[in-house]
Amino acid sequence: MAIYNISYTDRETERLINTEMGNPYSLLHKIKLNGIGSRRMIIENFSANMKHLVLKVSGIQYANIELRPKGIIIHINQGVYTYAWTVPFFRLSVYNGDFFTIHGNGNFIQFNKEKSWKENRTFLQKIIRMKSSYNPTK
Fold it and tell me: From the CB of residue 135, how many other CB atoms can be counted at a distance below 10 Å?
């Protein structure tokens, strides 16, 4: 689990992400899965270790989730910068309370439930199904 600055193309960062999360799905596999990305979600809060990702100016901050064979990548927009938080399935927890929250390795991001949950419910259920059927020995 790591946070990468993916604002600019960097082959080494791509290699690290692909090693940790698996290569991106092919077009055919994306179609079979009925999509591998969430709609954008409004971020409400970060865990203490991730506070450096909070927007420096006031405004709404967004993120979206990409599904990979070994986990998920949360793409966090911070003005002109984009960060990728990688969360392997074996470290992933999803909570549905006052906020919709993704936890991984002691860190979390809380999302606005009003819009994020309704628009992404089927996608989030797909993530939970894939997590439960994930076998790291494959």
Answer: 6
Which residues, in sequence order, are bridge partners of residue 108? Answer: 103
> What's the pLDDT tens digit per position in 87-137?
999 999 998 888 889 999 889 999 998 877 777 888 989 999 999 988 776
Structure tokens at 130: 């894939």
Q: Count structural domains, the chain.
A: 1
Angstrom distance (rounded) from CA 138 to CA 124: 23
Question: What is the CA 93 to chain-centroid distance, rounded?
Answer: 12
Q: Which helix (H) or strand (E) holds 117?
A: helix 113-133
- pTM > 0.85: yes or no: yes
Within a domain: 138: no
What's the rounded Cα separation, in Å, for the pair 128 and 9?
30
What is the extent of the structural domain holding 23? 3-133
What CATH number is attached to the domain comprising 72? 2.30.29.30
Spatial distance between the Cα atoms of 119 and 15, rounded to a whole number of angstroms: 31
